[in-house]
Amino acid sequence: MARKLYLALAVILALSVVATPIGTRSADIFTFHMIQHIVTMMLVGPCLVLATTEKNRNRLNQNRLFYFLTRVDVSFFIYAALMVGVHISPIHMFIMEKPWSHYLIELPLYLTVPYLFYFNLIEPKLSNRRVATGTACLVLWIMMVPETLTGFFIYVSKLSAYQNMYEINDQRLGGTIMWSGGMIIDTLWILLAVYHWYKSEELKNE
């Protein structure tokens, strides 16, 4: 039942930032872009991981490419590169000026890359994990650094980071959402990982 609820939540959240004005105006309003970015990468992806059954997890792990892409070092690099890369001025402006790249490249990446990153970090299984629960906590904590710094530097910029594509107050608000909002969501997943760590230690001591 819980997995079905996570799946339903993932679908609802995805639709709320894709099939609404937040999605259709994300190229014009930086705040909307950041809301879409945060929701898809930090909420939808993890919810899809929690919705994945153990049977499907085992099937996915048997795929060599998937297994490689979900290695901690590989998925961390891909996730951080996407998180930071789409906000580098030339890349961001290209995506916003070419709607096809947003819908055919950026959004699919927002949905698939987080799934790869969180796949082994927040899985509910307490034993025989690919990534130890303690390591998962550490990796999630370290990921807060590029997320927070990206939002912070966008926020503190006194000039437009995107050649006046957005109003400066809109840009600052978007940076704030990524900076503070991202930290809040990250903390929730870290707490879940800590809970898994605590329960796994309990299991070892039984």
- Calculate the mean pLDDT score and round it: 89
Tell me the distance between the termini: 28 Å
Largest sheet: none
Low-confidence stretches: none
Helix percentage:
over 70%
Radius of gyration: 18 Å
Strand content: under 5%
Gross geometry? globular
Oligomer: single chain
Q: How many helix segments?
A: 10
* Structural class designation: mainly alpha
Q: What would you say this structure looks like, in words?
A:
The chain is mostly helical. Helix content is 79%, strand content 0%. The protein is built from 10 helices and no strands. It is globular.
In short:
The chain has helices spanning 2-18, 21-24, 30-51, 54-61, 64-69, 72-85, 89-97, 99-118, 133-156, 168-205. By secondary structure, the protein is mainly α.
Features:
206 residues; 10 helices; 79% helix
Blueprint (SSEs and pairs):
Layout lengths: L1 H17 L2 H4 L5 H22 L2 H8 L2 H6 L2 H14 L3 H9 L1 H20 L14 H24 L11 H38 L1
Helix pairs in contact: 1-3, 3-8, 3-10, 6-8, 6-9, 7-8, 9-10
